[in-house]
Design brief:
Layout (H helix, E strand, L loop, with lengths): L2 E5 L10 E4 L4 E3 L3 E5 L2 E5 L6 E5 L3 E6 L2 E7 L6 E9 L4 E7 L2 E7 L5 E7 L6 H13 L3 H12 L13 E2 L11
Parallel strand pairs: 9-13
Antiparallel strand pairs: 1-4, 2-3, 2-7, 4-5, 5-6, 7-8, 8-9, 9-10, 10-11, 11-12
Helix pairs in contact: 1-2
Length: 179
């Protein structure tokens, strides 16, 4: 089971970490949360020690400049929070971790899968991966694509998506999906 511990050191003025429940309630998050395969938990303070939400009960999570949306997984049709890598006016590229690899999907704004599930390939194959899998949907996003190709050549970058989070390539804003 994957448990991702996320930490952020931020002052109170800049704190913009929250989840949005299916009912539309916006719940503020502390500086540290645990994101599991199907849940998110955090310390609720002195009166409520541990607060947990199942992914299926949320619409969105915003944390440390990154965004996760509740979207379907392909094979199981279960819903899971998936991290938004980039988006434009017609497509949303997301990733999630499963077993030993990142899995990538592309959705339209109605949250329909428009590019089926792909496992992130080995780094030496990622330039072709970008060209074949990502570029058709983000063709006009030259800055984004340049960053991805640079990541492929960068020895220190984990993969082509390294250091890219909720990258806006069009006029629409990802928070539209909170409604």
């Amino acid at each position: 089971m994957l448990i991702l511990l996320i930490s952020l050191c931020a002052n109170a003025q800049e704190l913009k970490n929250y989840i949005v429940t299916k009912e539309g309630e916006k719940v503020s998050l502390p500086d540290q949360v645990t994101l599991g395969r199907d849940y998110i938990s955090f310390d609720g303070g002195p009166k409520i020690k541990n607060v947990s939400y199942m992914h299926k009960d949320l619409k969105m999570m915003v944390f440390s400049g990154r965004v996760w949306l509740l979207l379907p997984l392909v094979k199981k049709r279960e819903l899971r929070l998936q991290e938004v890598i980039c988006y434009n006016d017609s497509a949303i590229l997301v990733k999630y971790w499963h077993d030993t690899a990142f899995h990538i999907l592309i959705f339209d704004w109605n949250q329909n899968i428009i590019q089926p599930h792909q496992v992130m390939p080995a780094k030496f194959r990622q330039a072709k991966y970008i060209r074949d899998y990502i570029e058709p949907y983000f063709r006009d996003s030259h800055t984004l694509l340049d960053k991805m190709y640079k990541n492929v050549d960068d020895r220190d970058a984990e993969n082509c998506l390294a250091n890219i989070a909720a990258y806006k390539c069009g006029k629409r804003d990802i928070t539209e999906l909170m409604k």
